[in-house]
Design goal:
Blueprint (H helix, E strand, L loop, with lengths): L10 E5 L3 H13 L3 E5 L2 H10 L4 E5 L1 E2 L2 E2 H11 L4 E6 L4 H9 L4 E4 L4 H9 L15 H15 L4 H8 L3 H9 L5
Parallel strand pairs: 1-2, 1-3, 3-6, 6-7
Antiparallel strand pairs: 4-5
Helix pairs in contact: 2-3, 6-7, 7-8
Length: about 180
């Protein structure tokens, strides 16, 4: 693992409405030395930000009850030097530009690895983070995305196939296989 240094204020707010992802990422970031404050809605985010304004933040762009861009602006107004990374499963250049303009230091597409997020948060002051040691293969990224959409559709194969614009039987074959490396 790459050597890194977290600021003395290691508070990290994670805002994501995908509960399983929020739990996994919270545990992964706690193991990396952060004091994590998870939030799964804008309402919970606002409650946390009233008590503590984090030094670090990982914000999902699309939320059930709002947009992550509002959360970025809120944190920026309270603590201008905080380091904010925006995550999204629906990446577009326009939203990436908007996020960076209002103060995000990086914009990552889901599924994002905890180490990639850590590099974005910690190496933001340097010119470039170190390259990943074992990056995910294209097949693995595709498989992770399909699994995420499948979970968001409450494990409904027909709904998942419709949202991914693929044939239901093709999706069933993909889901039956083990994850690629």
């Amino acid at each position: 693992m790459t050597k890194f240094k977290i600021d003395e204020d290691n508070s990290l707010l994670i805002l994501d409405d995908d509960e399983p992802f929020l739990k996994r990422l919270s545990m992964a970031m706690e193991k990396r030395g952060f004091n994590v404050f998870p939030a799964n809605s804008m309402a919970e985010f606002e409650r946390i930000v009233k008590e503590i304004c984090p030094n670090y933040a990982i914000i999902d762009l699309r939320l059930n009850d709002g947009t992550g861009l509002d959360a970025v602006e809120t944190i920026r107004s309270k603590k201008p030097d905080s380091k904010i990374v925006v995550l999204t499963g629906y990446g577009a250049i326009t939203t990436a530009v908007a996020a960076v303009k209002i103060g995000a230091i990086d914009y990552l597409s889901k599924p994002a690895d905890a180490n990639d997020i850590l590099n974005a948060l910690v190496f933001s002051n340097q010119s470039k983070p170190p390259p990943p040691v074992n990056p995910m293969s294209a097949d693995r990224v595709k498989w992770e995305h399909i699994q995420r959409v499948f979970e968001l559709c409450n494990r409904n194969v027909s709904e998942t196939a419709r949202r991914l614009s693929m044939h239901r039987r093709t999706l069933q074959r993909i889901l039956a296989k083990r994850s690629p490396k």
